Amino acid sequence: MTDVHGVVPPIVTPFDEAGEIDADALREEIRYHLDSGVNGVSVAGSTGEGNALSVDEHELVYGVAVDEVDGSVPVVAGVIATSAREAAAKAERARDVGADAVMATPPHYERPTDDGLVDYFAAVGDAGGLPILIYDVIEKVDVTADLAARIADEVPELYGIKQSGGDMHGLAHMLNTVGDELTVLTALDDLLFPSYVLGAEGTIGGVTSVYPRVSVDLWEAVRNGEIDRARAIHEATLPLARAAVWDRDGNYPGGVKAAIELLGRNPGHPRNPIVDSSGADRERIADAVAAMRDRGVYENPANG
Q1: How many CB atoms lie within 10 A of CB 71?
Q2: What is the side-by-side strand order in the sheet with 183-186?
Q3: What are the alphabetically sorted keywords of the record (predicted)?
Q4: Which residues are annotated as a binding site?
Q5: Predicted pLDDT of residue 304
Q6: Do residues 240 and 45 lie in contact, with contact meaning Cβ atoms separated by under 8 Å?
Q7: Comparing C-alpha atoms, which of 86, 2, 8, 94 is closest to residue 51?
Q8: Do 48 and 13 meet the contact criterion of CB atoms below 8 Å apart?
């Protein structure tokens, strides 16, 4: 199976002013992440506005990522769907263009039974034949540790789970329950440092799409036992993680794209109904970027 671990940023999907995908800007952003030393890239997840992409647009974004990565790191294809049929169609496109794994949410409109969720992920596995990461982010459809263990028993393609529920207790329980058989990744964006110490095998967290170089530094510091250094990075990035991702009430990933732009890159625009961050919201993100720099942590040492 594909080895998905470490820092695997969920890349933003840049849109132009007309709301169309800017493939050139997407390629540039992927290259930036590769140059930052990431362990993989993920596209068409929540940060990549996969919920707003058609199936054909998923194939386009998947294909751009596979082409740019060119086998250097795994490509994880996001699958956000409301039905097994839709999820299967996206998984097939991911397979066809050469993605290495899929990251699939549970369906997010109606709440299925546990039996229904097992059948859902089995359909994704049957259609794509790729390793599956469950993206546990849908608030009303919680994939508990016990359910994850059951899906692992019944769906051979299941590879791991991305814990995004905002609950360190839930992450600890997931690691203790299925950590020996599944790869458990964290997306507790403002708590990546303690997540790694606890045993998470990496992250596909939104903040890593903002500052991938710093995110790799944090991951490597923990892996090398440099806890004081890791804590310093955590403290420096905490205001930005909160301003761009964790404290936001809607309009995601508008704040992520604002943070990326403030750091000197081109994330494009969000797609309607998400809007560009402005006013007090953008000022709060700018202040958080400045706070990170004031603590001596720079995403791009050449310009901060």
Answers
A1: 9
A2: 6-7, 202-203, 183-186, 158-163, 132-136, 101-104, 75-79, 41-43
A3: Lyase
A4: 47, 204
A5: 57
A6: no
A7: 86
A8: yes
Tokens of 7: 């820092």
Query: What's at 167, amino acid-wise?
Result: D
Q: Across the chain, what does the average pLDDT equal?
A: 96
Contact, 88 vs 77, CB < 8 A?
Answer: no
Residue 244 is classified by DSSP as I
From residue 283, alpha-carbon distances to 47, 125, 243, 253, 275 in Å are: 21, 44, 10, 16, 15
- Is pLDDT at 212 greater than 70 in this prediction? yes
pLDDT tens profile 35-58: 999 999 999 999 999 999 999 999
Q: Span 6-224: which CATH code?
A: 3.20.20.70
- By the 10 Å C-beta count (0-12 exposed, 13-18 middle, 19+ buried), 280 is classed as exposed
* Catalytic sites, residue numbers: 135, 162
Numbered residues of the known binding site for pyruvate: 47, 204
For residue 234, give the nearest of 201, 261, 211 by alpha carbon.
211
184 CB-side CA count, 13 A: 28
Q: What is the pLDDT of residues 87-97, one digit of tens each?
A: 999 999 999 99
